[in-house]
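W.,

You were right to be curious about this one. When I first looked at the sequence I had no strong expectations either way, so I just let the prediction run and decided to look at it fresh. Below is the sequence, 411 residues in total, followed by the output.
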Amino acid sequence: MLLRETITQAIYSLAVNKLRSWLTIMGVAVGVFSIIAVMTALDAIDKSVESGLTSLGANTFQIQKNPATVFGSGHSRNLLANRKDITYKQALFFRKIMETKARTIGFIISSMANQAKYANLTTNPDVTMTGGDENFSASNGYTVASGRNLSTGDIRSARNTAILGSEVAATLFPSGDNPQNKFIKVNGEVYTVAGVFNKKGAAFGQSQDNFVLIPITRYLDHINEKSSLSLTVEALSRKDYPSAIDRAIGAMRLARGLTVKDANDFEIRTNESLIDSFRDIQRAISTGAFIISFMALLTAGVGIMNIMLVSVTERTREIGIRKSVGAPRRIILHQFLFESLFLSLAGGLIGITVGITIGNIVALQFNLPPIFPWIWITVSMIVCSGIGITFGLFPAWKAANLDPVEALRPK
């Protein structure tokens, strides 16, 4: 009963000064929000990276001109900018060397922000135009839902043949008509639809089905001949994976005409390298979030102590009356500690709620289910409790040790 009365009295005292209490609560909420929102968003991106990497098979790696992410000095960036494109001729030479040492070797090149049309129907101008070879589907995990895949004849003759991603097909042929042998336009060029790929879903927050595939030779002849190719290599087995990467590096060096003294002017992209790149970004963001949260919570803690000291000064007569009628020190101490603790925990709960909401908005952009970082929620509540008790202890001790005679003396 005594504990319940003490808690009730603490809540009542905070409610008397609503504006002051809410401002103090918001100070704690900002600190908790920053860490919860960042960690929820990072969890969402982490899950997206994991699901996105399934687009590269367990035995698959890619060779491309530049790394997926670029860190370092301006000198490093200039070196990357001076790298020459991987040409189709180099890719063919590479395939000839590696044809008995890999299961499949696919070529790919693409450009963003294209628009496809059929009759009076038009897609948004966000379609990816992709040039690929006959190994595109096998190398990138696509299967043909209807029609056929690209053939060696399409590649050799640079035919105006197109295979549609499921999203493009659904937009241009919404009534379920068979797109095969229909004519579509992409940026003014006419293509004959030969097939449609099965739906693959999203990766890294972007659709993998919003594209049009055409023969890579057609792409280079009619769209952009000065573009760098990416090569997707599937090793013969998981056991052969490391040696396949080593052989691929040697083959690409030969294809690029590099000497023994020359450094590699291309990048090997594996699941592990992508994860490492993401972890570097994740660590940098997490460190920044921790610093911001620590400073915000420290400031909020000082604010709590300041408000509680003001409260003790304002309620000196109330404390004196309660002590004069027999209220023990511990009850006064507990009441002021509870007030400090409630301010801190209320701010923590608001920060957690808003942080999870904002973080899950990011998750929604990556087509992921709701995420609740329970570990960080628990840590945040423990930290808030510690702040409330630590910064509220001195004001509570000061209130508990007031001399009732001095407190009741008229001023």
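Here's what jumped out at me. The two ends are 35 Å apart (CA to CA). And, maybe more interesting for your project: The chain has a mean pLDDT of 85.

Coffee later to discuss?

I.
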